[in-house]
């Protein structure tokens, strides 16, 4: 069984001045600054007021998508971020919407939508990404994941946004669980929860959900966006 992405310990830049948690991009490289203007860092305020972090991405000027298992007491999002030390826009979340069929026992339909308290100002550094829909349901090939996490098992969190290319596989287990999967030593290891799987047509196809160690490798699991597009559209069009 997959475990949901554990959140790796990191230190935020001086502007945050606290310990936090986020994911890892293993085997990747630094993204061109602000080349992925949809990327969002989601701050989670837990019940005990502990601060943790997930990834996310802007899908409309007032909605962010992330993983359902990133649900917390409250959330805030950082927009237009490349380096932690940069000036950035921080917006509070008005309401969180878990997928109607999310199952926390096996992390199926692991998607959550965050309604922002104010609309994001769309600039060259802050811009929504298009979502794959039912017409894009066939298995995409060349895709990318990105995030601010560790670049190796023993490193600290990356100061800058990292990205890595992944190739999706037609794995029997993944077909059975109706998720996208990639495999290998390159990918969103242990904590890039909520980050987007973006494929060659520039659309977001999946949400980073889980990883599983296999013999000499790692299997990465992404919740399929096309299968949830009706629910997504219903939420953003009525809220």
TrEMBL record:
GO terms for molecular function: serine-type endopeptidase activity. Gene3D superfamilies: Trypsin-like serine proteases (2.40.10.10). One of its GO terms (cellular component) is extracellular region. One of its GO terms (biological process) is proteolysis. Residues 25-237 form the Peptidase S1 domain. It catalyses: Preferential cleavage: Arg-|-Xaa, Lys-|-Xaa. It is an enzyme of class 3 (hydrolase). PROSITE patterns: TRYPSIN_DOM, TRYPSIN_HIS. Its EC number is 3.4.21.4. CDD domains: Tryp_SPc. It is found in: Secreted, Extracellular space. Keywords: Disulfide bond, Signal, Zymogen. Residues 1-22 form the signal peptide. This is trypsin.
């Amino acid at each position: 069984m997959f475990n949901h992405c554990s959140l790796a310990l990191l230190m935020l830049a001086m502007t945050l001045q606290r310990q936090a948690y986020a994911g890892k991009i293993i085997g990747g490289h630094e993204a061109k600054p602000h080349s992925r203007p949809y990327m969002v860092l989601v701050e989670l305020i837990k019940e005990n007021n502990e601060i943790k972090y997930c990834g996310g991405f802007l899908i409309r000027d007032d909605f962010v998508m992330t993983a359902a298992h990133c649900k917390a007491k409250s959330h805030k999002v950082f927009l237009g971020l490349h380096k932690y030390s940069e000036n950035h826009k921080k917006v509070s979340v008005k309401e969180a919407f878990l997928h109607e069929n999310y199952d926390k026992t096996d992390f199926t339909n692991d998607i959550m939508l965050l309604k922002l308290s104010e609309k994001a100002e769309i600039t060259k550094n802050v811009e929504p990404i298009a979502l794959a829909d039912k017409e894009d349901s066939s298995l995409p090939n060349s895709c990318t994941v990105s995030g601010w996490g560790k670049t190796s098992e023993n490193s600290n969190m990356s100061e800058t946004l990292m990205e890595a290319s992944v190739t999706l596989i037609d794995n029997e287990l993944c077909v059975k669980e109706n998720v996208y999967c990639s495999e290998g030593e390159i990918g969103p290891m242990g904590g890039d929860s909520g980050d987007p799987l973006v494929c060659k047509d520039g659309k977001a196809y999946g949400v980073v959900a889980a990883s599983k160690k296999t013999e000499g490798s790692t299997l990465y699991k992404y919740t399929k966006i096309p299968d949830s597009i009706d629910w997504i559209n219903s939420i953003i069009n009525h809220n």
